[in-house]
């Protein structure tokens, strides 16, 4: 079944799996987690170099081929790339390998491990999207205040923010955040009353 034995892969976290590659015969061994990472039940497939390459994301295949060439020559390596599992799901992985030596000290292959960081990658992406959305909201709020104060269009309000950004060497989103903080609670009561009146009488 070409599966890494229990002594190598005991108590592995689900996101980490071990592998071995033997130069002689180009043989692979996968731990249970590496098999699952590729979308297979442990023991259901015999890993081969061709199979490993077939799961690499098309955009990363050339880079991974270069890594495999290092493996064939018993060189240590590390790589961060994408794989596409048997179910079509794209996963982000880090693969690290070290030389595997025989009894006489000769290089007989590579042993190492996969780290699946897809979930943390998605979290990072979500966080980045959230930050962008938050920044845009602050910029829109700042534009709205300038539009109301000066009776100008959204484009002109944004021009003012960009101008001040260049003058102060502060990014637009940070400038908008500081501007909103400065303006918080500064409107006089009669202004708020006018806003309330206008808002509630729209028909």
UniProtKB/TrEMBL annotation:
Residues 30-75 form the PAS domain. Keywords: Kinase, Phosphoprotein, Transferase. Its EC number is 2.7.13.3. Residues 119-180 form the ANTAR domain. Pfam families: ANTAR, PAS_3. SUPFAM superfamilies: CheY-like, PYP-like sensor domain (PAS domain). It catalyses: ATP + protein L-histidine = ADP + protein N-phospho-L-histidine. The keyword Chloroplast does not apply. Signal peptide: none annotated. GO terms for molecular function: protein histidine kinase activity; RNA binding. It comes from the Bacteria. This is histidine kinase. The lineage of its organism: Bacteria, Bacillati, Actinomycetota, Actinomycetes, Mycobacteriales.
């Amino acid at each position: 079944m070409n599966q890494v034995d229990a002594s190598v892969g005991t108590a592995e976290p689900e996101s980490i799996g071990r592998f071995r590659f033997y130069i002689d015969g180009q043989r692979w061994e996968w731990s249970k987690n590496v098999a699952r990472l590729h979308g297979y039940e442990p023991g259901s497939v015999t890993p081969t170099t061709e199979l490993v390459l077939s799961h690499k994301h098309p955009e990363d295949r050339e880079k991974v081929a270069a890594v495999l060439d290092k493996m064939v020559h018993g060189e240590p390596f590390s790589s961060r790339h994408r794989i596409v599992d048997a179910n079509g799901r794209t996963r982000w992985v880090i693969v690290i390998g070290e030389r595997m030596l025989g009894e006489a000290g000769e290089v007989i292959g590579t042993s190492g491990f996969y780290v699946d960081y897809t979930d943390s990658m998605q979290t990072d992406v979500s966080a980045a999207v959230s930050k962008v959305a938050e920044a845009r909201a602050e910029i829109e709020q700042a534009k709205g205040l300038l539009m109301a104060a000066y009776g100008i269009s959204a484009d002109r309000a944004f021009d003012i923010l960009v101008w001040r950004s260049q003058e102060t060497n502060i990014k637009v989103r940070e400038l908008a955040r500081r501007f909103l903080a400065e303006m918080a609670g500064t409107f006089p009561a009669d202004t708020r009353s006018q806003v309330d009146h206008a808002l509630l009488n729209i028909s």
